[in-house]
Amino acid sequence: MKVDQKIKNIAEDVYKKILKKKQPSMKFPLRALSNVKYDPKHGFFELLGKEKIRTLSVNTVKTFAQTLKMMSISKDILKSDDMATKREVYYVSKNWGDARFNEQPESDTVMDDIEGMFMVNREQLGFTADEHGGDVAGQLVVIDKNPDTKKVVKIDCTKFGSGAYSIPTSVEHLKFETNAKFILAIETKGMFERLNRHNYWRKSKCIIVSMGGVPSRACRRFIRKLSDEKNLPVYVFTDGDFYGYMNIYRTLKVGSGNAAHINEFFCVPKASFIGITPQDIVDYKLPTHPLKDVDIKRGKDAVKNDPFVHTHKEWRKAIEAQLKMGTRAEQQALAKHGLNFVIDKYLPKKLKNPKLWLP
Amino acid sequence: MVQTKLTTVSDKKKRTITKAEELAKGQREISVAEFFTKNRHLLGFDNPRKALLTTVKEAVDNSLDACEEMNVLPDVSVKIIALGGKEASVADRFVVTIEDNGPGVVKKQIPNIFAKLLYGSKFHSMKQSRGQQGIGISAAGMYGQLTTGKPVKITSKIDPKRNAMYYELHIDTQKNEPEILKEEEVEWEKDHGTKVTIELEAKYVKGKQSVDEYLKQTAIANPHVTLTYISPEKKKTNFPRVTEEMPAEAKSIKPHPYGVELGILMKMLKSTKAKNLQAFLKKDFSRVSPKIAKEICDKAGVYEKSRPSRIATQEADNLFKAINITKIMAPPTNCLVPIGKDLIEKGLKKEIDADFYIAVTRPPAVYRGNPFQIEVGLAYGGDIPSDHISRVIRFANRVPLLYQQSSGAVFKAILGTNWRNYSLSQSKGALPTGPLIIMVNIASVWVPFTSESKEAIAHYPQIIKEMKLALQEAGRQLSIHIRKRKHAEHEEKKKSYIEKYLPHVGIALKEILNLKQTEEQKVEVNLKKILEKHRE
User: Which of A50, A266, B99, B374 is paired with B147 by a 20 to 30 Å CA distance?
Assistant: First the structure.
């Protein structure tokens, strides 16, 4: 069923209830870790089917109206074959009088709810992210189209000098040519720059991607598509902390609880972790920072609630070990042993020895 | 200053000086000035800021007590002038003048009352009053004299038909005796009253421990008083009375045996007019019948017909112990003069802009043989800031206590009350948060303070218990008010929610389903009915 028809059906349902003088309601999948299961054979977080029901009442009337209004925007955009960024949608709401959103996170939440309700990606609703997509350099030619002339454009990612190719918000139409052997996804821009400046990708025949923290959906989809189509392994290099393990690596590999309805397409199940592990902190005597309260909470939460950690006992061990150590280390801490230690020693050793990886 | 005369020892008659003799060289009588300087913190003159407040406080307390004794509605004016041509905030010298319409002071007594420490009637009586030790006003005068060298100036008139007397006094700091610098008859337009002027080194500040705050709180707890205040910034503030009703006259009572300490008991034994011990116990104490008196004597192993002045220290100690193991009826409580529920509410209303006022006056209770009574007033909402912790204002016999809030019984009682039961928020170990002012007054013949500076009330379990009961009773009333208000707000919010957001449901459905105008209206009408039906 097409999305605009789905929108009409929901609205029709609400309308009929109102005519019958009954409280209308809408159903959404619960967007949380408690509503996902993980089967390594499938490779990503799948919905368990728990729902939340938004019934129209005095307390929900504002959100209820906002949800319907946003569905109305989506219908208009789809009709005119246009796109609107999340921020633009937030500004459109400023036209709704008292029902407007006060802050963008409010409108983003309603948008995520609608996505979940229809089990679609936000692009299918006519909405796009305004977040940064990630940077790419290395042995890769991206085949894109000029948005005006629709002419094919070939982008050689070895030719950006000290700069990089920037992943667009929508990647479905892209095609690739490459002779690289693997993809290296990196947490920080700083580490990406070091590897890029020293042409690390040429020496080790790879494509390097800077995620800039938690990877955007576009970035996740880009890596997935590229690795699937060109059959490339994916290695992930993050800081040695729970944010790096869970929020970044786990989200890239199996998706998140918050957007579980789209994980199937936005995950990279074949990714492996080659970032800083608790064992590395010990082996390389890395300079550390003490874990803060939020870090400890994040680590304990992962052990307790994250199906991914429940499945992979290596991760469970690593997180528990790190909680015991009470410290964390950044990927740039390797500079203690020399600025290019990461290129000359750390990465070659890691990549050669799968025993040092985490699943 | 008293100098010990040093013995000159000639070289020929050299002998060993004993330790006692050596110590004796350093032993001498201490002058009052020295005593004062060393103990100024006990008397409320620790620093220039506090000195200004204490001076005003002692004079105003005296004025109010005097007016009430004469049964006239007090009109008291306070005027503070900054000297040296400086701004009030930077000046370091001030002239303080307090004037009342009280009975005045007889000529003979003026020098003693204003220029002799520890002189007064209050120390010896068991009667509820503001001042307790007779140290206050003369100490303020002495502080002025020590810091500026200027005398205390007094004008006093006791009879409309006579002239007023004008005095300028110094304290002889060696002998603790008044020194009259000037004494004359003057004309004064008042029928009767007293005016005191003291020049002193001080500092004027605003805020929670200021003269301004002290006078405002005095006005709250004394709604029968009219106060006029001219600040060092030359701003005039009036605190008019809101009732013509005078507080009931305080009655003196005899001490209750349970409240007497051994030293006092021995002093009383020496000075009593009673012929024998039994009569002494019966006449000089309250609630002691001849039977109880005999019981005490028997338990102490002392013959009840002994002459009180003949009682030895050991026997006195036995008596003291016997008293405390004998069951004696609680003291009479008609000697207490609370402010009263209505007047507390009136007092709060006139000085604090709030939505809701409630006061509670507890029945009298007793700690260590001393009767006391607790009163609590709450003011809630209105102009009181709502995101702060609540403010506490404390009184002892209607006198505001501005220092050492967190060390006294009031603070402990408030923290020990669970305000969350009364619809307020409260963090652990903190005062409740919200637009609330909590007033607590203790009325007692002998208010137990934690120190001589009379700033915080001691932690007697009976006192804390009474405070908590009063706070709880007032808290329950407040809670009813808050819940009513919240309910009204909730209803209001619901109504406005429906009006604000319902139309947008209709609009959105119209946009998606291309509804007609009439259909959209139908949606709105139906939704209103649905929501009215499901009001949660």
Answer: B99
- Average pLDDT estimate for A178-187: 96
**Which is nearest to A195 in space by CA: A237, A225, A248?**
A237
Class of residue B329 by CB neighbours under 10 A (exposed 0-12, middle 13-18, buried 19+): exposed
CATH code, residues A135-356 = 3.40.1360.10
From chain B, pick out residues whose CB is under 8 angstroms from the CB of A68. Answer: 504-505, 508-509, 512
Q: CA-CA distance, B255 to B260, in Å (whole number)?
A: 7
pLDDT tens digits, B5-39: 444 444 444 556 677 777 776 666 667 777 777 88
The length of chain B, given as a count of residues: 536
Q: How far apart are the first and last CA of chain A?
A: 37
Q: Long-range contacts made by residues B300-305, C-beta under 8 angstroms, separation at least 24?
A: B302/B277, B303/B277, B304/B276, B304/B277, B304/B278, B305/B276, B305/B277, B305/B278
The answer to whether the beta carbons of residues B101 and B67 sit under 8 Å apart is: yes
* Of B73-77, B236-240, B284-288, minimum mean pLDDT range: B284-288
Domain ranges for chain A, please list them. 3-128, 135-356
Q: What is the CATH number of domain A3-128?
A: 1.10.10.10
Q: Which entry of A38, A91, A249, A346 is annotated as an active-site residue?
A: A91
Query: Which residues in chain B touch residue A7, judged by CB atoms under 8 angstroms apart?
Result: 512
CA distance A23 to chain B (A): 6
Residues 6+ apart with CB under 8 A from B497: A58, A59, A61, A62
pLDDT tens-digit readout, A1-47 = 788 899 999 999 999 999 999 999 999 999 888 899 998 888 999 99
Residue whose structure tokens are 């970032």: A275
ipTM over 0.85: no
> What is the reported pLDDT for B399?
92
CA distance A183 to A229: 13
Per DSSP, what are the bridge partners of residue B442?
A: B374, B396
CATH number of B257-325: 1.10.8.50
pLDDT tens figures, A146-165: 888 889 999 999 999 989 99
Between chains, do A21 and B512 touch, taking CB under 8 Å as contact?
no
In this prediction, residue B82 carries a pLDDT of 94
- For chain B, the average pLDDT equals 88
For this structure, is A91 an active site residue? Answer: yes
pLDDT tens digit sequence for B241-289? 999 999 988 888 888 898 888 888 888 888 888 899 999 999 989 899 9
Residue B255 per-residue DSSP state = P
- The pLDDT of B383-401, averaged and rounded, is 92
- The closest of B501, B206, B239, B221 to B377, measured between CA atoms, is B221
CATH code of the domain made up of B341-478: 3.30.230.10
Nearest to B501 among A8, A23, A98 (CB): A98
Q: Which residues pair with B367 in a beta bridge?
A: B370
Query: Which residues does B70 contact at the CB level (< 8 Å), separation at least 6?
Result: B102, B103
Structure tokens at B168: 């300028």
Measured distance CA(A337)–CA(A335) in Å, rounded:
5
The residues with which B433 forms a beta bridge, in sequence order, are B389, B425
Instruction: Label the pairing between strands A36-38 and A45-47.
Output: antiparallel
B505–A23 CB contact, under 8 Å: no
Distance CA B265, CA B324 (A): 13
**How far apart (Å, rounded) are the C-alpha atoms in residues A341 and B175?**
88
Query: Which CATH architecture describes the domain B34-239?
Result: 2-Layer Sandwich (3.30)
pLDDT score recorded for residue B313: 86
Residue B1 in this model has a pLDDT that exceeds 60: no
Residues B200-213 pLDDT 10s = 999 999 988 999 99
CA angle B484, B486, B488 (to 5 degrees): 70
